[in-house]
Specification:
single chain; 175 residues; alpha+beta; 5 helices; 9 strands; 39% helix
Length: 175
């Protein structure tokens, strides 16, 4: 019976010492080594993506949020008939009522958080307000629909996103 098993093993698996399977095959096969390298590469890629986030994507997220808030503030200026001022620094921005710059519009502030101080999600961000191509320290949102050509540039570590005011009076991220 023992010879039959050994004969079958030899026919199927080829000659070798089947009592100690590690004697003939010591070390890693090429396939096992490749699997380990692929696992290490995937782990490294995932780790580096978290350590070095995509700055352009993060800046675009801040720009999108800023654009939405600017549009809401523009609507509020038109509804209330009062101009609003947008101020910004490297850490965030705020929207002020021109009638009382030290305080926000109390009635509107009760219904929304548009007037609260906002921080950038990924500071520091350098902001430039360009009105008809001329740099301004702040942005005035008038109560009427007509507004001069407005470009807002957000910059973080040499990555830049531009926000423009469309002919319809809406703010959008420039392509």
């Amino acid at each position: 019976m023992g010879n039959l098993v050994e004969t079958m093993q030899t026919l199927i698996l080829g000659p070798g010492d089947y009592k100690n399977p590690f004697k003939k095959y010591s070390g890693l096969t090429l396939l096992e080594l490749l699997v380990v390298l692929v696992i290490l590469a995937i782990t490294t890629a995932l780790t580096s993506a978290k350590l070095f986030p995509d700055e352009k994507r993060l800046l675009q997220q801040d720009a999108l949020r800023f654009t939405e808030i600017l549009s809401m503030a523009q609507d509020q200026a038109q509804i209330s008939g009062q101009a609003l001022i947008v101020e910004s620094n490297a850490n965030g921005f705020r929207i002020l009522n021109t009638n009382n710059p030290s305080n926000t519009s109390a009635t509107y502030a009760l219904h929304t958080n548009v007037f609260k101080n906002r921080t950038w999600q990924y500071p520091p961000i350098k902001v430039r307000f360009l009105i008809d191509g001329i740099a301004q320290a702040s942005l005035l949102l008038p109560p009427h629909a007509h507004m001069k050509t407005t470009v807002i540039e957000l910059e973080h570590n040499h990555t830049q996103v531009r926000i423009v005011r469309t002919s319809l009076g809406r703010f959008k991220i420039a392509p």
